[in-house]
UniProtKB/TrEMBL annotation:
EC number(s) on file: 4.1.3.3
Name the UniProt record assigns to this protein: N-acetylneuraminate lyase
Keywords annotated in UniProt: Carbohydrate metabolism, Cytoplasm, Lyase, Schiff base
Subcellular location: Cytoplasm
Subunit structure: Homotetramer.
Protein family according to the UniProt entry: Belongs to the DapA family. NanA subfamily.
GO MF, one annotated term: N-acetylneuraminate lyase activity
Keyword Lyase: yes
Pathway: Amino-sugar metabolism; N-acetylneuraminate degradation
Signal peptide: none
Catalytic center residues: 138, 168
Main subcellular location of this protein, as a coarse class: cytoplasm
Chain sites annotated for binding pyruvate: 47, 206
Length: 295
């Protein structure tokens, strides 16, 4: 039964200055998310820098999160895609063996699918490697270059993949799927535009801001759903300003990692190459933005 609703955090991968994974940070991180009433975590997403890790490291991250998430009642979704198909299958099989709560996958990233039929055929192969787990699709055309008609894709995937449960996408794509979200299927909103999304009926999200500003995000969604739209808009404007002020200092993940440390004190560290950490002046600008908004 698929029951992962609400706010899911696409978790950062804690790293030291040499780019090695700091597994000892994960229990602290998980307790923080549980205390903030986050529903679950996505391990191995863009925020988690999946493309910078080999398959063994990704499996170890899954195991580390499962160990701490289960006692805290945090759901665990594992992003298995982004590698060659044999490695994607290995990741899906590992998730099946570990009985995670769901898997998510990207499309093939080099020999990209050109049609909904090709994409669904690819997802069928992945789903068969983890047949007992709900399958979600990670729709991120800005990074993947795969930008198909999502309504056509969704219809075909629902018809052909028994464990297909939905996708992660932006509000524009979620709106196109509104009349197809039946039988527990849903769209997770992928960015920080959570007030407008909740207003359109999409109140589940897998967004980086769920890590850093969980209370603010929850207030935006709650106020929107109970009709206090003016109050929600003020908070959404605040969130927009903070995200814009933070992200203008460099690439998205390094900027957000810096903000995560300032706001929460959790040492998620620098990104792994090929991404580079913020220099000191840009870190200071991130701190100043957050201080201005009392974070």
């Amino acid at each position: 039964m698929f029951n992962i609703y609400g706010l899911v955090a696409p978790v950062f991968t804690p790293l030291d200055e040499d780019g090695e994974i700091k597994f000892d940070v994960i229990p602290i991180y998980a307790k923080y998310l549980a205390k903030e009433n986050i529903t679950g975590v996505l391990v191995g997403g863009t925020t988690g820098e999946f493309a910078s890790f080999n398959t063994q490291e990704r499996k170890e991250l899954v195991d580390a999160w499962l160990k701490v998430a289960r006692p805290l009642n945090l759901k665990v979704i594992v992003q298995v895609g982004g590698a060659s198909l044999p490695d994607v299958i290995k990741m899906a099989q590992h998730a099946e063996e570990r009985k995670v709560d769901a898997i998510m996958t990207l499309p093939e990233l080099y020999f990209r699918p050109k049609t909904a039929e090709h994409l669904v055929s690819y997802l069928e192969v992945v789903s068969k490697a983890a047949p007992s787990l709900p399958l979600l699709y990670y729709h991120f055309p800005m990074m993947t270059g795969v930008n198909l008609n999502v309504a056509e894709f969704f219809t075909l995937a629902c018809r052909r993949i028994p464990n297909f449960m939905g996708l992660k996408a932006d509000l524009h794509d979620a709106t196109q799927l509104a009349d197809q979200l039946k039988c527990g299927k849903l769209t997770y909103i992928a960015n920080h535009m959570l007030g407008p999304s909740a207003l359109m009926g999409h109140d589940s999200s897998i967004a980086t801001v769920n890590n850093i500003f969980p209370s603010l995000v929850k207030d935006i969604v709650r106020l929107t759903k109970c009709g206090e739209v003016d109050k929600a808009k003020k908070l959404q404007d605040k969130l927009n300003s903070m995200v814009n002020g933070i992200s203008c200092n460099g690439d998205f993940v390094p900027c957000m990692k810096a903000a995560m440390e300032v706001v929460t004190g959790i040492k998620v560290g620098p990104p792994r190459m090929p991404q580079t950490p913020l220099n000191e002046p840009h870190k200071k600008r991130v701190e100043d933005i957050l201080k201005m908004y009392k974070y």
